[in-house]
Design a protein that fits this description.
Blueprint lengths: L7 H10 L5 H13 L8 H10 L15 E4 L2 E5 L8 H11 L4 H5 L3 E3 L10 H9 L3 H32 L4 H25 L3
Antiparallel strand pairs: 1-2, 2-3
Helix pairs in contact: 1-2, 7-8
């Protein structure tokens, strides 16, 4: 077993399982997430082999360029996360979804069924369910790619806004407060990325 074999839904369960303090309970829960509930019915020697198969969890999730097209559960999707193409609706929805920490909601903004535009004539719940079945390696590739571009965009926006504020003839104290507000808002906008897209 490798990271590419783990679905997003399993990864979410793994994160919860790894919080279990008791080591034996944690190992059993992780094994059940990876191999199913019936893993406890295996002879101890077979269970030991399953434990060895979990060694890949010690490795970082590999990184690649995200695919432009994705096929999940016999449905085809395209990836729409280049900032030049992102609509205002996508940006607003992503910002709102990022507050939930739910990766399937966040990525549903950029993983679009073929033949559709964002949020136009398709079942968003079906898309989120498919994203939960997506390999975690692909999820991380998409999240990391968008996170990097979003971060660059926000920092460019911050720099431009501060320059424009400084050009105004507003009183010094007002300029200072506006600059601080812009810096704080960009930091706040980037915070969900630092926690959700951490590598």
């Amino acid at each position: 077993m490798k990271w590419k074999d783990i679905k997003l839904s399993q990864f979410n369960r793994l994160q919860e399982a790894l919080k279990i303090e008791n080591e034996e309970e944690r190992i059993i829960e992780v094994a059940q997430v990876l191999f199913g509930e019936d893993v406890l019915d295996l002879p101890i020697s077979e269970f030991g082999k399953k434990i060895k198969e979990m060694d890949f969890l010690k490795e970082p999730i590999p990184s690649n360029v995200p695919p432009k097209k994705i096929s999940i559960n016999d449905r085809k999707y395209y990836l729409d996360c280049l900032l030049g193409n992102v609509s205002t609706a996508q940006y607003v929805d992503f910002t709102n979804h990022s507050k939930t920490g739910d990766m399937s909601k966040m990525l549903s903004v950029f993983v679009i069924p073929e033949g559709h535009k964002y949020n136009d004539g398709y079942d968003i719940v079906e898309v989120m369910n498919d994203i939960n079945d997506m390999p975690i390696t692909v999820v991380y590739d998409i999240a990391f790619f968008f996170g990097r571009h979003y971060s660059t965009f926000m920092r460019t926006f911050q720099s431009y806004s501060i320059k424009q504020i400084k050009k105004t003839e507003l009183p010094k104290e007002v300029k200072k407060n506006l600059v601080k507000a812009v810096k704080d808002s960009v930091t706040l906008a980037l915070y969900p990325l630092s926690s959700s897209f951490a590598r």
